[in-house]
Amino acid sequence: MSRQIAASAVARCPMSVATAYAQSFLRLAEAGGPEARVFAGPLRRSVRMTFGSSIDTTEPGRVNEQLQIRWSGRTTWLPDFAGTLHFRIASIQTTMLMLNGSYAPPGGRAGAIFDALLGKRIAQATANDFVRRIAAELERSETEWQEHLERHVPPRVVNDR
Length: 161
What we know:
Elements: E1 3-11, H1 15-30, E2 37-40, E3 43-46, E4 48-56, E5 64-72, E6 81-91, E7 94-103, H2 108-152
Helix pairs in contact: 1-2
């Protein structure tokens, strides 16, 4: 039995650079950095994470990049997850991140009962937290880039002849 899950967040970051920033975050997660830690209710667990990119054609009239994300909890109590992170323009300076995926509750019938009672809420909170953390990284990266520009790019002089 597979459960569907979805989460979203808006990041103050232009769509034009959002995917690249998200890929940087996920590369660190893939390497086993703290980005690979998921928050399952009160528990924190490092997972083995992988990702890849493909073309997202689900938005009519537009072709975007999307990221496939998988993680394995490497334990019997944390389900494996497989999903897709989509990026959409929310405004000129903001991007909507949407994670859609699935997991199979571990533990057979007992796990299915636990999932129905509490596990699905834990899984939703985990997905929400993960997307918020990616959005925060997009914002941090964009702020860092803008500060770099302010320090190193001279202001444009307008000639009013």
